[in-house]
Amino acid sequence: MSVTQTKPRPRLADVARQAGVSPATASRVLTGSARVRPETRQEVEDAIAQLGYVRNRAARSSGSRRVGSIAFVVCEDNARVFSEPFFPLMLRSVSRELASCDIQLVLLTVHSPRDYQTASRYLRSGHVDGALLASMHGGRPFDLHSLGIPVVLVGRPFGDDDGDEFSYVDADNVGGAKMAVQYLLKNGRTTVATVAGPPDMAPGVDRLRGYRTAMADAGLTDPGLIVFGDFGRVSAEHGLYRLLDRRPKIDAVFVASDLMAAGALRALRRTGRRVPEDVAVIGFEDSPLAQHTDPKLTTVRQPVEAMGARLATELLGLIARAGQEPTHVVLDTELVVRESA
After folding, report:
1. Beta strands across the sheet bearing 252-255
2. What DSSP string describes 23-64?
3. Residue-wise over 51-64: b if at least 16 C-beta within 10 A, else e?
4. What pLDDT was estimated at residue 5?
5. What pLDDT, on a 0 to 100 scale, did the predictor assign at position 326?
6. What does the alpha-carbon distance between residue 75 and residue 294 come to, in Å, rounded to a whole number?
7. Partners of 235 in the β-ladder
8. CATH 3.40.50.2300 boundaries in the chain
């Protein structure tokens, strides 16, 4: 008995490799973007012909029938999605914006490699008109170019590769963090530490950059004042214990999320430090949690609901106008002063 093996269909990545260009460039050729040199366009078109590449059937033009659904994809496990304040606030804002257009929001949480495979198949299958992607760690887990649907990212993409190829809506993480640290320094704090976010996520990187910029501007640089958390409460509590072991005289802490700030407050209380008398604490986000900590949390307000509304608007625009150039939106942050600093 003979067995005939079916040759896998060529993907966009295969076309890019054959043409000697990036997947982003190959995608621009397929969408008719003007941002491609004629000779490069010809190389991509030749590769498409040689490989017999056919765009995924999920890709739809602005005139094709739509299904009236949008996916909100969160790259975290369920426990984090439903326990951290950021995600429910964002989902509520996006859902409210889409409801006025009679569009359904579908939530997908992905964490394991199998989750990513399942979600990719779903997104390519024609069940949704577009997708919002949040909380991506490290390199993009999806081949976004091959999904065949418009995509908008929640926050700028991690790293610099193809950073301008996809639309995103973000908060000014760098500026917000810098503003918080400058406030601490101007109010007489001299040893300002930070519990930074994950180094494989853009918000973590950007908020740490803001901290470092403010400290460097003040002539203060000490790597021993930096520990990392995972945006969760427990990670920050443990991080504070490590900080206090090696720098017991810290008098302020900038913490990269409100949930982590709650963990930091617990650690300070357990080690006998008074807040803000001994150690001032500033968080980031201004989630509802910030008004229920003891003391109430000074924090950088991230406009989560405005971000959600803008994300929905940007994605609807991409769906309505195929081939539109990506947009990059960064919304302002502000410092909200309460009792902890």
Report:
1. 226-228, 192-196, 252-255, 280-285, 298-301, 334-336
2. HHHHHHHHHT-S-S-HHHHHHHHHHHHHHT----TT---TTS
3. bebeebebbbeeee
4. 44
5. 83
6. 31
7. none
8. 69-171+305-332, 173-301
Beta carbons within 8 Å of 185's beta carbon, 6+ residues apart: 192, 214, 218, 220
Cβ count near 159 (within 10 Å): 13
- For every residue of 128-196, DSSP letters joined together read -SEEEEE---SS-SS-GGGS-S-EEEESPPSSSTTTTSSEEEEE-HHHHHHHHHHHHHHTT---EEEEE
To which CATH superfamily is domain 173-301 assigned? Response regulator (3.40.50.2300)
> What residues does 107 pair with on adjacent strands?
72
Q: Look at residue 330 and give its three-state secondary structure.
A: strand
Predicted pLDDT of residue 258: 96
Rounded CA-CA distance 38/178 in Å is 43
CATH superfamily of this structure's domain 69-171+305-332? Response regulator (3.40.50.2300)
For the domain made up of 12-51, the CATH class stated in words is mainly alpha
Parts of the chain with a pLDDT under 50 = 1-6, 57-63, 161-162
pTM: 0.78
In the chain, CATH 1.10.260.40 sits at 12-51
pLDDT at 321: 81
Strand, coil or helix: 328: strand
**Pairing between strand 280-285 and 104-109?**
unpaired
Tokens of residue 122, six digits: 């779903």
pLDDT value for 152: 93
Task: Please answer whether residues 12 and 145 qualify as being in contact, where contact means their C-beta atoms are separated by less than 8 angstroms.
Answer: yes
On whether the CB atoms of residues 225 and 192 are closer than 8 A, the answer is: yes
pLDDT of residue 62: 43
Q: How far is CA 114 from the centre of its chain?
A: 21
